[in-house]
Amino acid sequence: MSETGRGASARSATEDRETVVSRVIDAPRELVFEAFTEVRHLSRWWGPTGFTTTTRSFEFRVGGEWDFVMHGPDGTDYPEWITWTEIVPPEEITLLHGEYRGDPNAFESVLTFVPDGAATRIEMRTVFPTKELRDEAVETYHAIEGGRQTLGNLAAYVTETVRRGAED
Question: Is residue 1 part of a domain?
């Protein structure tokens, strides 16, 4: 499901600076995409297991920003900032993610939403400015596992939303 770019069949110019995490979610693409684009959804599932978020501002549009704090299970707060650079509903979102606007260590993520029968395959490809920053994210901050957990939280949230919708 996840890889760090090593061993991928198609080599790219950013291979040594990227991570890829994917998951199939048992929900329609439009609903999965919506969960990424509305703060009322994002604030309920974003982040690795045990993390919560507090949104300071949110404006989903190209050039818009999401300024928020992730609260770790140990009580540590992590300032976060995202700006969207491309939005193709309901197929793809490209964003720049750092700790603050202008962060030189900000990384780019491309999220693709592909129908997989009645489900959706989501892929999150992240490219870091340097190989060293990628390695630090993977080895120190467990970016691959965190990405898996984040997509797992999304899957749980979206499938619960679908289930509740079927009951209404």
Answer: no
